[in-house]
Write a structure and sequence with these properties.
Number of helices: 12
CATH topology of the largest domain: TIM Barrel
Shape: globular
Strand order of the largest sheet: 7-6-5-4-3-13-11-9-8
Protein name: Beta-glucuronidase C-terminal domain-containing protein
Organism: Micromonospora sicca
Oligomer: single chain
Helix content: 10-25%
Strand content: 15-25%
Distance between the termini: 7 Å
Number of strands: 25
CATH superfamily of the largest domain: Glycosidases
Radius of gyration: 23 Å
CATH architecture of the largest domain: Alpha-Beta Barrel
Length: 541
């Protein structure tokens, strides 16, 4: 059967590249046949994480319409409300609503946002388009914060979550107990497990599902974690943690399932005492940092699976400590995020490179974290450098706007999320710059095949793509430098198909180009920091 692509609105036709006329740095093959085996990308894979102190900035009345549109652009996903703020901000049903306390007004704003994002969902009819994980405190009480006890969590659920989500309980994917307990409990595993038993025994989250442990992980080479030559926090305690928490987690699973949650940052803003943590674009995009991530995801996802749980990277971004200027807020963050989502869905463990070739192990999703630039309760100072969506820091608290990273989530959510046949694609390298190309394949439908080709390098790359048939579509994510200086990885913006999100948060739609292959081959050039999605339709081989 010949490959056919019909002209339609939103599709433009490019001149056929024909056979390669210039140097080819690498080559890939996109098999038009459906992939036998391979993994899947769950329907609610993408997500954002927002600190409690920023509810008004993202989901208050003036911010909500645009933020709901930014969620809606992605189709489906999971919103996480929490982070360190959940252990320092008390819930108080009678308090005046400020950004230093969690109130029923905050929960009402979250519910209203999900109502908008789920406008076409009928209650009780399957999993909502968007769900929310709501974080509450579970951390050792102190003289300053004596309220961090099971009774507080129970009040959060019964006086806050329950009334706010009446008639929409299925929107609550889970209630998360505590944040980064390895740090808050000062590596005291037994104290942490004792508190979990007390909270669980008090039915602190009922009737909602529960999620733990949301551990932080060391920023160190995976080999150092493997041989335990660095402080590994709770990394190797996951078996003991999940043995204690999995029964309660599975006993009350909701529409979004049951999972264990983890955090990951490849770099950190502060690194005076440990240069390995220092944030640079080359470090962010290096194979070494990807290997660290793959090692963690594969190790912990396997531990979760052994106990009947999924695994979600519930807090993820470029650099711990609210990001790094010039690394986290530029186009490099988008190309990093795109490749990282594929590595989360199909980790290739560096200690056993071929063991997960068919993507049988992986995360069910990721949440990119958003915070203030310096400290909680000071949004007027600006956005965290790593924010995927920027809030309005002015008193107007207007429409949030997409940062570079958002466009990676948009491309992934619309063209990879919910697909099957996930596999890493071999890249045959002919020149050094070709080695920076990462390639992933998914099957979008009965006769739809896609290849994601991602250039994580700082030089253009020409690829030969072998794809039987005549016609193909290409969507392209590119760095955007409005100054005209030609910046690429350090450009302040990103576009997809030359387009950006509208001022109201809506996406005008993809506009792929269409090309024609010759003799089953075509050439694609990827600029520095660019990614393309090649789509074949109507050809089953």
């Amino acid at each position: 059967m010949a490959l056919v692509v019909l002209a339609c609105p939103g599709v433009s036709f490019a001149e056929s590249p024909g056979t390669a006329t210039g140097p080819v740095h690498a080559s890939v093959r996109l098999d038009p046949r459906p992939m036998v085996g391979g993994g899947s990308v769950p329907a609610h894979f993408v997500g954002f994480s927002v600190e409690w102190s920023l509810i008004e900035r993202y989901m208050g009345p003036t911010a909500r319409p645009a933020f709901a549109n930014l969620l809606g652009n992605l189709g489906t996903g999971v919103l996480r409300i929490g982070g360190s703020s959940q252990d320092v901000m008390p819930f108080d049903a009678t308090a005046v609503n400020t950004n230093e306390v969690i109130t029923p007004e905050d929960l009402a704003d979250i519910r209203a946002t999900l109502d908008a994002a789920n406008a076409d969902h009928i209650a009780g009819d399957g999993t909502p388009n968007w769900g929310v994980i709501l974080g509450t405190a579970m951390s050792p009480p102190t003289a300053q914060r004596p309220w961090r006890v099971p009774e507080h969590a129970r009040a959060f659920v019964t006086q806050g979550v329950g009334p706010a989500f009446a008639g929409a309980d299925e929107d609550v994917a889970a209630v998360s107990l505590g944040n980064e307990p390895d740090l808050s409990y000062r590596y005291d595993l037994q104290q942490y497990l004792g508190d979990f038993a007390a909270f669980s025994g008090a039915n602190a989250t009922r009737p909602y599902p529960i999620v733990t442990p949301n551990t932080s992980e060391p920023i160190a080479p995976w080999t150092s974690i493997a041989n335990r030559s660095v402080e590994t926090r709770f990394f190797w305690d996951w078996p003991a943690i999940l043995d204690a928490t999995a029964p309660a987690t599975k006993a009350n699973a909701g529409a979004f399932g049951a999972w264990a949650a983890d955090h990951f940052y490849p770099l950190a803003r502060t690194c005076a005492t440990d240069p390995y943590r220092c944030p640079t674009i080359p470090a962010l995009l290096s194979d070494e940092r990807s290997a660290n991530f793959n090692y963690q995801v594969y190790t912990h996802a396997n531990e979760a699976a052994r106990r009947g749980l999924g695994y979600r990277v519930e807090e993820l971004n470029t650099a711990a400590g609210r990001g790094a200027h010039g690394v986290s807020d530029v186009a490099a963050s988008a190309v990093w995020a795109l490749d990282t989502m594929f590595n989360a869905a199909c980790p290739q463990p560096p200690h056993a490179p071929s063991v997960n070739a068919e993507c049988g192990t992986g995360a069910i999703g990721v949440n990119f974290h958003n915070a203030e630039v310096r400290a909680f309760f000071h949004p007027e100072e600006g956005n965290g450098y790593y924010n995927a969506i920027n809030f309005d820091p002015s008193a107007a608290m207007g429409a949030p706007t997409p940062a570079p990273e958002y466009y990676a989530l948009l491309l992934f959510a619309r063209l990879a999320q919910g697909t099957t046949g996930l596999r890493p694609m071999p890249v045959a390298v002919n020149a050094p710059q070709g080695g920076q190309v990462k390639a992933w394949r998914v099957d979008g439908g009965a006769s739809e095949r896609r290849a994601f080709l991602i250039n994580k390098g700082d030089q253009p790359v020409s690829l030969d793509v072998a794809a039987p048939g005549a016609t193909y579509e290409i969507d392209r994510m590119t760095p955007d430098d409005p100054s005209g200086a030609g910046r690429t990885l350090d450009a302040p913006g990103v576009r997809i198909d030359g387009r950006v999100v509208s001022a109201d948060g809506s996406w005008p739609g993809f506009q792929p180009t269409v090309g024609t292959a010759e003799a089953g081959h075509f050439q694609v050039t990827l600029g520095a920091g660019e990614a393309v999605v090649v789509t074949l339709h109507g050809h089953d081989g």
